[in-house]
Design goal:
The structure is a single chain. With 379 residues, the chain is an alpha/beta fold. The protein contains eight helices and 23 strands.
């Protein structure tokens, strides 16, 4: 990291920006994919807003910023946009996005990408922001690839931060993970067609995927250490019907005990009760849903106040953190009455963009207008 979040501005960081400064791409810069404007490498980058996190909320924040004619760049540790929607459940349906009775997570990301496509928003993917220095109006961020981003403001839309699955402590699991026999993410249902699938977990992910795969996989076992599931009531009701119809077999109260197979080819999942009773399920795939291990990573060292479980307290009206000029939206943001919903993150993106305008363009008066009035900005 460069230093504490409030270190004095250093002119050598390249953050003295004229008020009309937009994205500054060197003439020699190559762009990987014109459709998504993914930047391969960039030594310097000057913007009004550096958006850290390119999940659904980060993508919509880019749209809101560009609607206010604020230049921005998207930065994400993953190699593609979409966050958990892309990395963990692209085919999972979402039911509470306005104007969509149902939309798959991957389709939502595609729609958000289409919405910001006219603005050609650059993005630095596969990067972690390792350092933040400067102050409101003149920040400097550094990535793990050595790039520097000069930004008047910073908008954290990092969801739950860096995330990874909680892995079950089973001997020899590495070989089964490497072969794909043990998975923590379902990228496509078709890949599990005709398989014998054991699903472990008691929350929404385990129940939802058991229901979703019941008509795809050859056999489904749902393993949980107790008979009560922590899923949505409607999902539990659907699960009860699927069990009664014989489409899903409940394995309760059991927990994972061991894996059987050779050279990464899974032939059985061994489960046991707390009393020591053991049985083997003839499964060739194991889906383990024990939640995510999340970490704010270097963001935790920026000098920003953080709360329990890695959230960042913000002022509700502006989404500004304890560090002036740094804002947070989406799941990472915390305030009284907060709901961890994508749609609330969308609202926060709009509010934050308007609050940011006063810092990024202090000499310009922002007059609120509906998009139907002014349309898309031409530049």
């Amino acid at each position: 990291m460069d230093g504490p979040g409030r270190t004095p501005h250093d002119a050598t960081h390249g953050v003295d920006l004229p008020a009309t400064q937009s994205v500054d791409l060197p003439s020699t810069q190559s762009v990987d994919t014109p459709a998504t404007h993914s930047v391969d490498s960039l030594a310097t980058h000057s913007v009004d807003v550096a958006i850290v996190g390119a999940g659904p909320v980060g993508l919509f924040a880019a749209f809101q910023c560009r609607m206010l004619r604020l230049s921005c760049v998207l930065i994400d540790a993953l190699g593609e946009t979409g966050g958990q929607c892309t990395a963990l459940y692209p085919e999972k349906p979402i039911y509470d996005i306005p104007a969509h009775a149902e939309i798959e997570a991957g389709a939502l990301i595609a729609a958000l990408e289409a919405q910001i496509a006219p603005f050609a928003v650059p993005r630095l993917l596969g990067r972690r922001v390792t350092g933040l220095s400067g102050a409101a109006g003149a920040f400097s961020l550094r990535t793990d690839r050595g790039e520097r981003i000069a930004a008047r403001t910073v908008l954290i839309a990092a969801g739950a931060g860096a995330f990874g699955p909680n892995r079950p402590p089973l001997d020899g699991i590495d070989a089964f993970e490497a072969s794909g026999a043990v998975q923590y993410v379902v990228r496509t249902r078709a890949a599990l067609r005709g398989r014998s699938v054991a699903i472990a977990g008691g929350g929404d992910s385990a129940v939802d995927w058991a229901l979703s795969l019941a008509g795809v996989a050859d056999r489904i076992w749902l393993i949980h250490r107790r008979a009560k599931f922590r899923a949505a009531p409607e999902s539990v009701a659907r699960l009860d019907r699927a069990v009664a119809d014989g489409r899903i077999a409940l394995v309760v109260p059991y927990q994972l005990h061991a894996l059987e197979g050779v050279d990464g080819a899974l032939s059985g999942v061994v489960v046991s009760t707390l009393d020591g009773a053991v049985r083997t399920l003839p499964a060739d795939r194991l889906l383990a849903f024990f939640g995510l291990s999340t970490d704010l990573g270097p963001i935790a060292d920026w000098g920003i106040e953080t709360g329990m479980h890695g959230v960042i307290p913000v002022t509700p009206a502006t989404l500004q953190t304890s560090l002036p000029g740094v804002f947070a939206i989406g799941d990472v943001a915390s305030y009284p009455g907060k709901l961890k919903l994508i749609l609330q993150g969308f609202s926060e993106a709009a509010m934050a963009a308007h609050a940011i305008h006063g810092i990024a363009r202090p000499d310009q008066v922002l007059r609120f207008e509906h998009s139907t009035t002014h349309g898309l900005p031409v530049s």
